[in-house]
Design goal:
With about 290 residues, the chain is α/β, with parallel strands linked by helices. Helices cover about 45% and strands about 15% of the residues. The protein has eleven helices and ten strands.
Length: about 290
């Protein structure tokens, strides 16, 4: 009986493809690809001429029967846009349909942004929870984040560049100012890994570009922050343009300190900023 091969492909660097994957991509009768343009570039780099068919989010229902029919005659390889098929992509439906038809489903493991990011994050790797892409709308996104609040293992998320800052703000508001590794463009030319607190990441990524994988510190019994810690968080939020009410509420929630103490720290920051502005103004006048 023909097989459905689930073939991992590079998440960036084309040299990360395995020898077994290359052999099977040459031998199968058909490749079902999430992004045929990207897959053609991979095949071209290794002089592979196997026929391609598209299988992606918007045709996964109409194309399913065709691919299952072909599996009655030939081996088929399923590849995603990047990484391991079936992880946050439409491969799941084809895999379950093949299993229901008693078609052998054979994994060909390889690159995965999830495992790559966890391994280099600097955060605990003994347990981690992959949550994929969060919802694009804020109410739904915050609802999912609240469900993740007490997950003990490191949290792993995918995020698009145009939603990164909104997602980081929601993570900080709901999960607190946890440690985070923001992995950008993994294995590609402009690969970058930012490690720090979520508040630091909000300051660092002013104009996000590329593909992001986030690894966030898991839940720990909260240790009460000190006022200097809280003041530093307030400074960071103020620089991002957050107003007094929202900033004080966020830091009070994260730190466990009384809201009145946080508000007093905010007033001190504003007073220091006013004094600094006045000093600079007087200096310019004296000149």
């Amino acid at each position: 009986m023909p097989n459905l091969y689930i073939v991992a492909t590079p998440i960036g660097n084309l040299e990360d493809i395995s020898l077994r994957a290359l052999r099977l991509l040459k031998e199968v009768g058909l490749i079902a690809a999430e992004d045929t343009r990207k897959t053609r570039r991979l095949l071209s780099a290794y002089d592979i001429h196997t026929p391609l068919t598209s299988y992606y989010e918007h045709n996964k229902v109409t194309k399913l029967d065709y691919i299952i029919e072909r599996l009655g005659e030939i081996d088929v390889a399923l590849v995603s846009e990047a990484g391991m098929p079936g992880i946050s992509d439409p491969g799941y439906e084809l895999i379950t349909a093949a299993i229901d038809k008693s078609i052998p489903v054979i994994p060909v493991p390889g690159p995965s942004a999830v495992v790559t990011a966890v391994a280099i994050s600097g955060l605990p790797t003994d347990r981690f929870y992959f949550a994929g892409f969060l919802p694009s709308r804020q109410p739904a996104r915050q609802k999912v984040l609240r469900e993740l609040t007490e997950i003990v293992g490191s949290l792993v998320l995918y995020e698009a560049p145009h939603r990164l800052l909104a997602t980081l703000r929601d993570i900080m508001e709901i999960l607190g100012d946890r440690r985070i590794a923001v992995c950008r463009e993994l294995t590609k030319l402009h690969e970058e890994v930012f490690r720090g607190r979520i508040s630091n990441a909000l300051e660092y990524f002013r104009v996000p570009r590329g593909e992001f994988t986030l690894v966030i510190e898991g839940y720990r019994t909260r240790e009460k922050s000190t006022l200097p810690d809280a003041a530093a968080q307030l400074q960071a939020l103020k620089r991002q343009g957050m107003g007094a009410k929202e900033a004080v509420a966020t830091v009070a929630s994260n730190s466990g300190l009384p809201r009145k103490d946080i508000y007093r720290a905010w007033l001190n920051i504003e007073k220091e900023n006013d004094n600094s502005t006045n000093t600079h103004s007087k200096g310019r006048k004296a000149q």
